[in-house]
Amino acid sequence: MTIFSSDNVTGACPEVMDAIVSANEGIAESYGNDKWSSKLQTKLSEIFETDVVVFPAVTGTASNALALSVLTPVFGKIYCHELSHINTDECGAPEFFSGGAKLVTMKSEDGKINTNDLSKNIRGTGNVHLSQPATVCMTQACETGTVYQLEEIQSIAETAHEHGLRVHMDGARFANAIASLNVSPAEMTWKSGIDVLSFGGTKNGCLTAEAVVFFKPELVGNFPYLHKRSGQLLSKMRFVSAQLEAYVSNDVWLRNARNANAMAKLLSEGLANFPDIKLAYPTQSNEVFVHLPSSAIDLLNAEEYNVSEDELDGKSVRFVTAWNTVSDDIDKLISTISNK
Hints:
Layout: H1 14-23, H2 35-48, E1 53-57, H3 60-71, E2 76-81, H4 85-88, H5 93-98, E3 102-106, H6 115-121, E4 132-139, H7 150-162, E5 166-171, H8 174-181, H9 185-188, E6 196-200, E7 210-214, H10 223-229, H11 238-247, H12 252-272, E8 278-279, E9 287-291, H13 294-302, E10 317-320, H14 327-338
Parallel strand pairs: 2-3, 2-4, 4-5, 5-6
Antiparallel strand pairs: 1-7, 6-7, 8-9, 9-10
């Protein structure tokens, strides 16, 4: 395990840790009826420029699976990319929490679904013998490190809504995408047609904090009961809400993401200088995928970088930068490869 293996390996940023310590003072109402949870709802409504309904959670898997379960009937279809986290890394949680919904996956060279493929796959509406089209899920930023442009989100959402489907965004690296596009959270979500967002904090400076954000209150439905039934309604929810409230205050989340993105760009540019190293995908957030020669892999492993071909596509090596990655970390890795 090395600093570049994932953005999950880092600790929490100081602002988040300070917020947890502060929330630990005294007593507070339980199950989300505390001042931190209330402040989080207000803060996110300000950030998204509309009234939102927020449900904190402790894992991205739970956030995604629960969001999809309230949007998708048991006989429904969820359209996503074949490399999406909900398809490759959540152990069937979306299918389980939805009661048996079917994931319909699509391929592309950059990790993003596109409108044409989506249109071709939306079929079977009204046919009792087939699972029914229900939900589209976009990962932003994608598992490949690429980022949907606003016009891509808008086009996919428009197509989905034309067919009566809801649109979910897996935002485990939401801040990295915002920083990459330099747009407002509102522009990248509800103004572009997103109905529900899984808002991630754990990968970008939180200890363990995610949230399901509803942009349309009428879609909340039975979610409070699903939230409780899944074990995500914590008795001491203040410790999750306090993390997220501090995370989105004073631009902490964006500062963290900008650093991670900048370090990824620095690493990507450094690796691209080697003629026998090729980028597998454009570096648009905080993940860098490259094709490395075996000599470079051997050298990195000798220095305990534990490099292997990533299981995402079985071909490339993944390096992930984080909120606290520094340029010295990049220089050391590049220097190691230079010795091959």
